[in-house]
Write a structure and sequence with these properties.
By secondary structure, this protein is mainly α. The chain contains 7 helices and no strands. The chain has 2 domains: 147 residues, Ferritin (Up-down Bundle); 41 residues, no CATH class. The structure holds fe (ii) ion (FE2).
Length: 202
């Protein structure tokens, strides 16, 4: 660990640097996946979703930079090569053959859920370690990405209780990573089964 302007003890700073680097890996991975969606999307929603995905990527690039620089400010290093990220990210790989517009929306919604789960985990760690500045940084990112997630969920036509059509079911990989059971987001808030889904919760 390097010398830091932070008054936090070195052991505390080391734990913060570790969790910030985990979020940096997720964020860099998510950025590359958003760009893949931005480039390959096709379909009736192209005109609105192509630029929307770019706004997500631009904001995420700035957040990744802020997280990396917070880790270095705390006396650590920031790890962000493609090879490092490939091994460290919690996100599932993106199916790059995807072209259909709403399928990209569903895939990105799943991955943003995973990204948000990691951010909340790191924020809880920063709260425990009494680093209010890292808490603030992470809260800002969470707030923005919850909004992005809302845009995507609204594009998928989520019902008033979070019930979704078949397109919006999280992939098995994303479900496992964020602890969702079959049926997706709705189960986490205890919603009734969506009509037309054969009694499944969804
Ligand atoms: Fe572009």
């Amino acid at each position: 660990m390097y010398k830091s302007p932070s008054p936090l003890p070195e052991t505390t700073r080391a734990r913060l640097v570790e969790t910030l680097n985990a979020r940096l890996a997720d964020g860099l991975d998510l950025h590359s996946q958003i760009k893949v969606a931005h480039w390959n999307i096709k379909g009736p929603q192209f005109a609105s979703l192509h630029p929307l995905f770019e706004t997500f990527a631009v904001s995420l690039a700035a957040h990744n930079d802020a997280i990396a620089e917070r880790a270095v400010t705390l006396g650590g290093k920031a790890y962000g090569t493609v090879r490092h990220v490939a091994g460290a990210s919690k996100l599932p790989e993106y199916p790059q053959e995807t072209s259909r517009d709403l399928e990209h929306v569903r895939l990105l919604a799943d991955r943003i859920e995973v990204y948000l789960a990691g951010l909340r985990e790191s924020r809880a760690a920063a709260e425990e370690l009494r680093d209010t500045d890292s808490v603030d940084l992470l809260t800002g990112i969470i707030t923005e990405f919850e909004k992005h997630a809302w845009f995507l969920q609204a594009s998928l036509g989520l019902g008033p209780f979070g019930g979704m059509g078949g397109l919006a079911q999280p992939t098995p990989a994303a479900r496992g990573l964020v602890g969702l059971r079959p049926g997706g987001f709705a189960e986490t808030v205890g919603c009734p089964p969506t009509p037309g889904q054969g009694g499944r919760w969804g």
